[in-house]
Amino acid sequence: MLGIRVEVAYSLSLDPKRPVVFLGNHPRLFEIPAYAKAVLAIIRRRNIVPIVKSELQRTPFGLAAVFLGALPIKREKGVHAVATIHRWAKKQTGFPAIVLYPDGTRATRKKQQRVKEILLEKYNDPKKQAIISRICSVTIPPKVAGLHALLMGLENPQCVLVRVKNNRGVTSLFDLWKNGPPTCVSVVVEGIQITSEDSQVLQDELFNLWDKKVVSFLR
Question: What global pTM score does this model have?
Answer without folding.
Answer: 0.91
